[in-house]
Amino acid sequence: MSIPEISVGELRQRLAEPARAPVLLDCREPNEVEICRIDGALHIPMRQVAERLSELDPQREIVVYCHHGRRSAMVAGLLAASGFGRVLSLRGGIDAWSCEVDPAMPRY
After folding, report:
1. Tell me: the pLDDT tens digits for 26-78?
2. In the chain, what are the domains?
């Protein structure tokens, strides 16, 4: 199953319009979130997503992100397989966000 991706530029535009803003799901580890995060994101580490599905609304659009995009694609696949119909993975992850959208954000 191919998981659709969203660019950091498109995500920035959607977040600027509250009516279009998706749920942001940060699937990184807690120590990574301590370094940097996108404001307003829900943090559920990848290994906990399956047991915490009830915290997510399957009717909402969800954008999953991690460091570079590999873990978020796997989590997005799990969500899609679990009946979540509007799931995207952030292309390039938070690293791309820090490079293209928020250069003041720490990189690791």
Report:
1. 999 999 999 999 999 999 999 999 999 999 999 999 999 999 999 999 999 99
2. 5-100 (3.40.250.10)
Specify whether the CB–CB gap between 56 and 67 falls below 8 A: no
Look at residues 60, 67, 78 and name the one whose alpha carbon lies nearest to residue 23: 60
Pairwise CA distance, residues 58 & 84, whole Å: 5
Specify the pTM.
Answer: 0.96
End-to-end, the C-alpha distance of the chain in Å comes to: 30
Q: Is 66 a catalytic residue?
A: yes
Compute φ and ψ for 87, nearest 5 degrees: -120, 135
Amino acid in position 62: I
CA distances from 11 to 42, 53, 65, 104 (A): 15, 23, 11, 18
Active-site choice (27, 36, 66, 99): 66
> Is residue 12 over pLDDT 70?
yes
CA distance 45 to 30: 7
